[in-house]
Every structure is written in structure tokens, then in C-alpha cells.
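WARN retry 2 of 3 for item q-0093 after timeout on previous attempt; input resubmitted unchanged.
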Amino acid sequence: MKRKLCKLCGVMISAALLFSGCGASESGADTDNAASTEEQTDLPEDGEDPSNGAPDQAPPDDNGSGGTDAPDKPEGDPPDGEGGPGGNGGPGGGGGQSAPEAYNAVNSYTENASVTGKTIISTGTDANAVLVENGAQVSLTGVTVDRSSSDSTGGDSSSFYGVGAAILVTDGSLTVTDSTITSDAAGGAGVFAYGSGTASVSDTTITTTQDTSGGIHVAGGGTLYASNLTVDTSGESSAAIRSDRGGGIMTVEGGTYTSHGTGSPAVYCTADISVSDAVLTATGSEAVCIEGLNSLSLTDCEVTGSMADNEQNDCTWTVILYQSMSGDSEIGNSTYEMTGGSLTSTNGGLFYTTNTESTFYLSGVEITPASEQDFFLKCTGNSNARGWGTSGENGADCTFTADGQEMTGNIVWDSISTLDFTMQNGSALTGAFVQDESNAGNGGDGYASLTIDEDSVWIVTGDSVLTSLYCQGSITDENGQTVTIQDTSGKVLEKGDGSYTITVSEYQ
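OK item q-0093 returned
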């Protein structure tokens, strides 16, 4: 079997689900733009251009020029419905919002500029404090940006296009250094890179408090580089590191990234994102959410997730790779790579993949599961409560590689999914392989295959079911006793001393 992912041919789920976990973004039309205000305190002369991306020529004396061109719209039409991974207004999902014809902003830069030590305040409805467009190269050093509005709507226009973000770059390059950015407005992301825009942000503090207000955000193909940031978000659907429809590229080095809201993972990934030497914490959501044909690479990061149980969820997880069918990500393989660092779960299971192709790679990660751990990996279909494919056909095709990795917990799979699980270079698994058909409908021809190299060990904690077992290493129970291996007819292939049995179709 290969991929039973349901392609909905343009028909999307329109129910707005109020769940926990990362989920579908709010939908709503923009209100009329109110006037924006700018406050400038201690106005020094504009500083020298920084070396990383500043223009060669002298900057203009003013704060930028007006006039906006409509940004390019991501390819494809937005779907009519909503249906992301779960939270009330969580990232992703949403229906029918098109790109704005123009943005409203306090400072609209269409020419090269360098700004130092200024305070810029935006209080307008869905108004950016800073907008960079028309290929301008702009540097902001030691600035304070304050974005606040009780009338802003947030929703898809903010999530997809950056409407109302504190700082937005749609075409050109922006460098932000040694600055403070605060946002108290729905849809008020801290720094947003969209389309042909590139943002480089370093040594800066970003704080957002309302819904759909990520800390750093890309969509529509934008590019963002972050170094040594302190990011804190409080609203729903407000991942500290956030992406949305059309994806982009994000590279993050160092810093702390903390989210507190429901449906607000530390990282929400519909882009290609790499993070190194950072602390990533979600206090009210899973730690990581990856949707569709996108990837996240974590190197030497401290990652913590705290997702609450919810009866609408099939399970509770810390990292999820899935496809919501909302239209926010291209159908394809979701990739999660983590090398070094630590992963801590305070509730539920660790890794969950459903309704997608997925690839996991773990190497040398210090993993701390929840005290009542549900599973280490769950690779199954789902009940379709959120519109994630068609029930009985929405399994996962998963490749999981443990490279010098210690693991504890059960591996759960079903017959509408495929799982290739490899343990190499001294990996160890303490757990069982459990076949669970509760969301598999009438079943399928899926499989679970386990390969153990000569340096790796499986410590079996319960009777297990596998399709294929290829073992050059060691298989024992927790007491060091061998286990019995039998085929599906009950024929004993290898008699063990312990009480557990592994049932397989193929054994080598």
C-alpha cells in the first residue's frame, strides 16, 4: 500500500471547530482602516547602514514614502472552509480571503532607508506600523515599535498576507537590530515576511498578546532570518515561530521562543524552517505542528510542549505531522528532524502522524515523556472530527529513523498506514508495537516494519504485532529474557524465555 491520503478535490470542511491544539485560522472580513499615528521620541540622525543587507547609498531623511502596490497572491485559490489541526482559531485553515489591494501603514518604505532610535506607534485598525515594499532596503536599529488596536479583526488576511502586523516586508529587505516590538492587536504579528520580502531580525524582543499574532511569521514565500530573539506570545493561534499559506523559509539561531495560548505551538510549520540552539516552549499547546509538504530541522534545541486533553481529539500529542486539507499547505511529505537537544512532554503522547506522508529523524535527543505517557509514536488514521481526510482512508505513510537514540513508549499503528521504523547506531527502544484499528474503518493493506541494526536493542514491554521484523541486534524483555517470535498462524519461529510474544508476517 502506498498513500491513502484523501484529496478532497476542492471540497473543504467549513465547520469552525473550537478545539485545543494547533488549528484552523479565524475567518472574517477586514473592517475599515482607522487612522494610524506615529510618535517619534529622541529623533537622532539616521545611523550608518549595517553591513548585512543595507543599501550602499545614503538613506533619505524622511521616514519613507507612501503608496502601496498589491502583493502577489500565493498560487491557488483559498478554500471555502476551515479545518486546521484543532485550536480555536489556530494557525492554518480558513476560507476565501484574498490578498489586499493595498496595505495601511504608519511608515511605508518604498525607497532605501536607515532608521535609528525612533519610536513608531500604530493604533489603526489592521494597520502596519512599518511596511517595506517596492524592493526597498531598510534597516531599523534600536527602534521601539508599538502596535495596538481593539478594532483589528485578525483572521485570514493577517495570517496569509500580514495585514495588521507590527512590521511587514512584502518586497525588499528589512534588517531589525537591538529593538523592541510589542503588539496588542488581533492579527498583529511581530515581524512578518511575505512574498518577495526578506527580514533579518537580531537581538530583539518581540511580545504579542492577541489572537492570530505570531512572533515571527512567513507566508506566501517570504524569507526570515532570526538571531538571538526573545519572543513571547499569549493569544490563540499565535505560535512564537509561525508560518501560513504559501510557506517560505525561516532560519532561526539562538534565542527563546515561548507561546502561551491554545492552538499556539512554539513552532507552527507550513514552510521550510530550521532552528538551532534555541529554547522553544509551548505552555498551552503542542510543541510543534508540521502540515503537508514542509519541513522543520531542530539542532541542539530545548523543546517543551504542554497540550491539554480534549474529547474532540483522538489523542494528545507533543509533535504532530499531518494534513488538514484546509489548503494552507501542499499535499506531500512532512519532515521533522531533531539532532541533539531535548524534548519534554508534560501530557499525552510524543509523536503523532495522520493523513499525510511523514519522515522523522531523531539523533541524540534527550527525551522526557509525560508521567502518564500514551505513546512514543502513533501512526494511524483519525476519526475525521476535524476534516482531516476521509475516515477509514486517512492513515499515515511514515518513515521513522532513530540514530543513536534512546526511546521509551509504545509504537501504535494501523492497517491503513505504513510504518518503516529503523533503529541504528546504538539506538534503544523500551516499549511495544501495538496495532490499533479503531480509526482504520474496514482496514487496509498497510504494514509496520522494524529494522534493528547490530548495535541497537529493543526492550519489549508487551505483546507486539509487526508485519516485518529484521533484527541483527538484541530483543529482550525488561528482565533481560528473550521473547517468543511467532508468525500469524501461531507457528513459533523463535522460542523465548520471557512471557511476551511478537507476532510477525516476516522475520529475518
